[in-house]
From TrEMBL:
InterPro entries: LytR/CpsA/Psr_CW_biosynth (IPR050922), LytR_CpsA_psr (IPR004474). It comes from Lentzea waywayandensis. This is Cell envelope-related function transcriptional attenuator common domain-containing protein. Pfam families: LytR_cpsA_psr. Belongs to the LytR/CpsA/Psr (LCP) family. Signal peptide: none annotated. It comes from the Bacteria. The lineage of its organism: Bacteria, Bacillati, Actinomycetota, Actinomycetes, Pseudonocardiales. Residues 85-254 form the Cell envelope-related transcriptional attenuator domain.
Length: 378
């Protein structure tokens, strides 16, 4: 029996690494790490962990920059637009000593200075700087559209990374990005994601229309679930819902036989090639290991502290305000450094630990114990 288990384990491991190699071959890469070397005042290179910036983009193009057709946009429940916003921004911190990983979320409407642009919502950093760079390159006579796309994408990613580093005080070591279409395709491949709602909810803007209780969602419904805006806590409530969804999605991905089912594997490779971009040095084996930790609840989710979710900028836009020094102090405390004093006007967020015994309550205040496989959320 022991021999049989050993052989089976080795066979699965071999298949897994073969699958991982195929995924790597189909993954688009960016030269962002070379660009990051030029960012002024970057934190130290070695801080005891590997920090991966995970970005969810609402780009209406695929990973090669080709516009999505109208029928695909209808499936995504969105419209065509030239702008690019990064509506999900998470720093995954993996300690080199084998300690517990952390996933730190940054609200999309956090108001911060953006290098090469102005003070604005952090989710606009990528798109705004990309647009300005593309205009400049065209004016300079760069006629090749693909070359303009590549260089303007790098500039946009650099601006986003710099904004994240300046806000958190963390050094970004690696970069991984997925667009709307990829999110849609991946949830279809794994057969949907199990979620649970405390009450029925609807939102005509995102297309969300869900009953109360447990349910399995995929495709357009999954996008609506994580993009819904009219919910308690605003940006913070949506982040908490995204964190729960991500944890459940990883469980589905790793338990659905994706890597051993030829049909699912083909779908996964197709989704990756159309939607995922990572830096050229990111070790996908490391990322896969962390995905297993995420699925098992061995990752600590947290959201940076904010001073208000109902702020307005001078242009009348709704924003999330933060005390940037307080954010740095909170991050330093979370990752085990000696923090600076936090101003008394700011209340740091409480890290939310996911697992079978401790699940996030999305009232914006506390984590509560619950004995269930799928946490119910607002």
């Amino acid at each position: 029996m022991i021999a049989l288990v050993a052989v089976t384990t080795l066979a699965f491991s071999g298949y897994f690494w073969t699958a991982l190699r195929l995924v790597k071959q189909n993954t688009n890469t960016t030269q962002i790490l070379q660009v990051l070397d030029d960012i002024p005042n970057s934190p130290p290179v070695e801080d005891g962990a590997i920090d991966i910036l995970l970005v969810g983009s609402d780009s209406r193009t695929d990973a090669q920059g080709r516009p999505l057709p109208a029928d695909v946009l209808r499936k995504l429940r969105t419209e065509g637009t030239d702008t690019v916003n990064t509506d999900t921004i998470i720093v995954m911190r993996v300690p080199r000593n084998g300690g517990k990983a952390s996933a730190i979320s940054i609200p999309r409407d956090t108001y911060v200075p953006i290098a090469g642009y102005r003070e604005d919502k952090i989710n606009s950093a990528y798109g705004a700087v990309k647009f300005l760079t593309a205009e400049r390159l065209q004016a300079e006579g760069v006629s090749d559209q693909q070359e303009r796309e590549r260089r303007s994408d790098e500039a946009g990613r650099k601006a986003l990374v710099q904004a994240v580093q300046d806000l958190t005080g963390m050094r970004v070591d690696h970069y991984a990005e997925i667009n709307l279409y990829g999110f849609y395709l991946l949830t279809e491949v794994i057969g949907g994601v199990q979620v649970c709602l405390k009450a029925g909810t609807s939102d005509p803007n995102s297309g969300a229309n869900f009953p109360a209780g447990p349910q399995t969602i995929s495709g357009g419904d999954a996008l609506s679930f994580v993009r819904q805006r009219n919910m308690p806590g605003g940006d913070l409530g949506r982040i908490a819902r995204q964190q729960v969804f991500m944890s459940q999605a990883m469980k589905q991905l790793l338990s659905a036989g994706t890597f051993t089912d030829p049909g699912k594997m083909s779908g996964l490779l197709d989704a990756v090639s159309k939607s995922v971009v990572v830096d050229q040095n990111l070790d996908l084996a490391t990322l896969a290991t962390q995905a297993q930790g995420l699925a098992s609840g061995n990752v600590e989710f947290a959201t940076i502290p904010v001073t208000s979710i109902d702020g307005r900028n001078e242009r009348g836009q709704s924003i999330v305000t933060v005390d940037r020094e307080a954010v740095k102090a909170w991050v330093a405390q979370l990752i085990g450094e000696t923090p600076k004093p936090v101003p008394s006007s700011t209340t740091p967020s409480t890290p939310a630990r996911f697992g079978p015994e401790k699940l996030l309550s999305l009232d914006g205040a506390h984590a509560v114990a619950a004995r269930q496989d799928v946490p119910c959320v607002d």
